[in-house]
Design brief:
4 helices; 6 strands
Length: about 130
Amino acid sequence: MSRGVGDRERVLARLRQICLALPETSERLSHGAPTFFVRGKRAFLMVLTNYHGDGRFAIWCAAPDGIQQLLTEADSEKFFVPPYVGHRGWLGVRLDRGLDWDELAGIAEDAYAEVAPTKLVEAARSSPDS
């Protein structure tokens, strides 16, 4: 199912809300894609639309060890190994294959935890919103 620009904007707005609620995060374009960073330096999640004609509306994000393989084997329609960053264990998640916002929030939080300093991760986990 293809998502129109309005749908993609709504999904991006919701992802933005999730990512920017985490401590010391920011957003800027990186390689032409909305990308979320910890302390302005370390990327943890990117939102890509039709990257190099792949037809996907998806996120690429950091993931804990073993999660990329586990999820891509469990559901290869939704999860994939993204180019360029996949070899580092990053996970691709299609946003045009049904959205479970609790699952996506968990994936974004895990991505953040992979790159953020321990003190920030602890702050995020102890905040009342998490």
